[in-house]
Amino acid sequence: MKTTYSILTVILSMMIFAGCQSLTEDPKGTLTPVTYFKTQSDLDASVAAMYIRLARDGGWGFTSKETSYFGSDDYTTDPGLNKQDQRDFDKLAGGSTNQSMVAEWQGPWETIYQANNVIENYSKVSSTEELKNASAGQAYFLRGLCYYYLVRTFGPVPVILGSIDVNDRPPRDEVSKVYEAVVSDLQMAKTLLGTKLEQGKPNRYAASSLLADVYLTMAGWPLNKVENYALAASEAKSVIDANVYNLNTPYDKVFTTNNSTESIFALQYNIGGGLPNRRFGSSNVPLDEVAVDGSSGWDDVYPEITFFENAPKCTRTDLTFYTTLKLRQPDKTTFKLVPWSSAETHAQHPYYKKFRAGLNGDGVKETDSQLLSIQPSTNKATDIIRYPLVLLCYAEASAMASAPTADSYAAINLVRKRAGLPDLTPGLSQTAFRDAVVYERAYEFAGEFGVRWFDIVRLQMLPQIIAARNPVENPIPTGTNISQKYIAPIPYTEMVRNPEWQQNAGY
């Protein structure tokens, strides 16, 4: 009998990083034989496995999930230390052998493998239609989400929607076909998911929110399907009109609490369960900062100087950026406060304040004048879709579909009001309004999982970003072909396994 597997199973099972945390996971949830799925609990185990594969270290649990997005101006890293993987992409010089980048490939593919497992077998389970549909809806949503990140990050990838033989080496599919699969999955998710709000689970609104973002992206490079602006506006408007989410949570609290009133879909984390989120806390703390207990910052991620200096003057900016560093003194209990630009600091950059605390201080515990402890592992959920993304998607898409309308202005002004900014200047041209929305999104989502980078990609903004780059940043090599840096290289190991594939241009 011919053995079949979902999505390169043997390959992917071998790709787990040796340094991953141990996880509490039902091993039955990852089995593929069709005879396994018998009860709803069996199906639930496989659904849970999808989230674990995506959320853990080696997937989306650490800064490695955004390695190739460091070409953006809201990301930079230390000019030395052990940051070469991110630093290479910050210099637009990343390559296919980059080990951190593998997480961007691995996490989504492992999740797609599990999603295919669920989708192929859920109908055979002895359970209610409602429960089975909810399981399948989550699988379609996550498969669409993962393909969306893969195609934006790596360009053409194989579209595999079922079991394949372990020896198969499927070709990379055109970007347009990948997007067709993404749209199809999210539309199917909309039909299967309900409207109930459940922590860590997508609902119909999450599917529409993600679909709106997908359509907006398809309207830009490389597809340039401008007719999709209207589709994006329609999907976003359906979420807005549902009146389920709001911006009543103060901006800083969004990043120190879980599942706020604007959280549409978030990955959940639990240190005790072996699934820590390491994107908050230590990664965002300067190397210079050492706490009373001796713990210190990792200096992994901070914004470029020009990005910080171009931020609007508002409450949100004050809550986003960390600009006064605390330097521990010889007595180890008192601290000297210095500005980010001080010669006493290592990097002479501002940092991100909003990613420091984690969940109510399980990352960095501090007062205004003292650092108590700095931890790398937190229980903070990672918001993949926040309501402001929907509002700004609607604002841009509705304006680009025809012209800026009163509703277009109302959507962006809701975001600006929470930020502490006045309403946007009325009467802007279509292009000026779009640029205002893109600028707003840059600072509403500063440092958040590639949001800024994907705007730079779809609008082909790298030349402007590079031209404005402060000369103190990590240097971009002379002669770099900027036009070839909008997508990352396929990891080297995958190219070896698939000798018929052609590497992306420039790598």
From TrEMBL:
<dbReference type="Pfam" id="PF14322">
    <property type="entry name" value="SusD-like_3"/>
</dbReference>
<feature type="domain" description="SusD-like N-terminal">
    <location>
        <begin position="96"/>
        <end position="216"/>
    </location>
</feature>
<dbReference type="InterPro" id="IPR012944">
    <property type="entry name" value="SusD_RagB_dom"/>
</dbReference>
<keyword id="KW-0472">Membrane</keyword>
<dbReference type="InterPro" id="IPR033985">
    <property type="entry name" value="SusD-like_N"/>
</dbReference>
<keyword id="KW-0732">Signal</keyword>
<protein>
    <submittedName>
        <fullName>RagB/SusD family nutrient uptake outer membrane protein</fullName>
    </submittedName>
</protein>
<comment type="similarity">
    <text>Belongs to the SusD family.</text>
</comment>
<dbReference type="Pfam" id="PF07980">
    <property type="entry name" value="SusD_RagB"/>
</dbReference>
<dbReference type="InterPro" id="IPR011990">
    <property type="entry name" value="TPR-like_helical_dom_sf"/>
</dbReference>
<keyword id="KW-0998">Cell outer membrane</keyword>
<feature type="signal peptide">
    <location>
        <begin position="1"/>
        <end position="18"/>
    </location>
</feature>
<feature type="domain" description="RagB/SusD">
    <location>
        <begin position="377"/>
        <end position="507"/>
    </location>
</feature>
